[in-house]
Amino acid sequence: MDRRSELAANLAEVAERIKDAALGAGRDPASVKLIAVTKTWPASDVRLLSELGVTDVGENRDQEAAPKHDQCPELGLRWHFIGGLQRNKANSVARYADVVHSVDRAELVTALGRGAAIAGRRVEVCLQVSLDDPPAEHRSGAAPEALDRLAELVSAQPQLRLAGLMAVAPLGVPPDRPFARLGEIASAFRERHPAATMLSAGMSHDLEAAVAIGATHVRIGTAVLGARPGLG
Ligand SMILES: *Cc1c(COP(=O)(O)O)cnc(C)c1O
User: Fold this and answer.
1) pTM for this one?
2) Best substitution site from 60, 102, 129, 224 to test ligand 1's pocket, by max atoms within 8 Å of Cβ?
3) DSSP of 137-171, one letter per residue?
């Protein structure tokens, strides 16, 4: 099978999974947006995905994302930065990212706000919330109690817009319980920040559980593009 047919078949399969999960949860399948996570894969794949109807792509490393974005200038894609972000990369990421999902501390809000101003762009921000219980030092994501303060800081940055929340299920446990908690955190957050409607959750292996608790954006790599060469 050529790459285009392989991607088309994978996209059809993922669309079916999203549809089943949405209908099972009494949701409109169109309310769940697929972000194709193209990390480790070449710009040629991004191009094929765009031709196959993908509108949103996700990347997790600036060194890889920046040149890949620049190789696809005319596709009109929405670029999502989903990886751990270092402050010194904020200027670069703000140049091409439409949405940054991984904002989990104050210094990143300030750095992204400044980067977006330099780039003359508006950047949407999701606050990444940790679902580790008890909290784990080395894992990314803010504690649920820290979200309101971060949201305030985002709102104070004219170049940033608070879009919503993002989370990654903890490793090695079934996703249902942490995602149920995420659903509660997200609905409480939306009561206080009604415009922040985005909920970015769900990957190749757990998209069903994420759609069941209201994910509006699923971040799918392997199930669309195949197993990544090496660790990505
Ligand atoms: C790589 C990555 C994904 C996609 O993971 P798959 O299991 O390949 O679907 C989603 N979210 C984040 C934050 C990632 O780094």
Assistant:
1) 0.97
2) 60
3) TTS-SB-GGGHHHHHHHHHT-TTEEEEEEE--PPT
